[in-house]
What does this fold into?
Amino acid sequence: MTSSINRRALIAGTGALGFGLASIHTAKAQTPTLRLSGPMTPTDQRAVALIEIFGPAISSFATFQPHWNATLFRQGTELEAIARGNLEMSVTSPQELATLIPGWSIFTAGYLLRDADHQQKVFADAVVNDLKAQTETRLNVKLLSVMYLGRRQINLRTEREIRTPADMAGVRLRMPNTEAWLFLGQALGANPLPLAFTEIYTALQTGAIDGQDNPLPTNRDSKFYEVTRQIVLTSHLVDQNYLAISKRVFDRFTPAQQAALQKASDDAAAQARTRQLALETELEGFFRERGLRVYTPDIESFRRKVQADYLASRFARDWPAGMVDRINAIR
Ligand code: KDO
It folds into this structure.
């Protein structure tokens, strides 16, 4: 959900707030607990990698305590919780970051990143340094690694064939509740409706929405295929999340522990990316076997409209001059 508190107040307030993790200063016997809150299921490959790789790799100096299915904090409120010292970690997104630091909206644009490899190279490139630095100083959030979620596809409970954005007219498409997400739904030609991730299944089941967009592995994990009839392979966003940690919490670890945290994060992200990519190629068959129609629309017509809408949008005014070209040039 969009942050309920005033953006300026939050940013101004982070410098003055105390952080309640006194235990992090104490001896090894009391290792600090790193609580992570996220809306994903525990079977999501990012969650699996964090459980299998990240937690064990840091267990000698910190206790990793994940909370899935948004059971600790509501989707979209995690950054505010970290900034206020009420949470140590989350898996955040450019769409959420853009509600607080508008420049992040460049990564919410459809058809900008080409694939997982491009996404990884862009995150490691100096082109993102300024946004990362602003996020640390203004929000107290350090982005450890980029996590590949997958290519987002349109998934509908209706049967009408979708070839171009014009065919999306009137489709009530669920989007996460931030301005950038809702804009993407609109750019796809749909009528976007904001809804939390954890409410999608029931909304599809009851017909409160006509569809949703998410990568194929998410569709499988959250069983959206049980309550929908078709998947339109628009691949409109190479979706990225970031493993995020409170900067102040991070700074309290020794340099060796910080390096171990960074490596654990990169290793977990690498495993998750490899598995998500494999699932994306396998799953088309899985959905077809369950009776869904899976097909590729006229992608060029989607690309043209979505890119044109973004470049003409108010979001583009917050993108540093030349940044789109620099991102496109990364190979
Ligand atoms: C979603 O709400 O559709 C979304 O895919 C948005 C992502 O940025 C991310 O928050 C994701 O949900 C969750 O991690 C659940 O997979």
User: Anything to note?
Assistant: The two ends are 34 Å apart (CA to CA). Confidence is low (pLDDT under 50) at residues 1-6, 11-27.
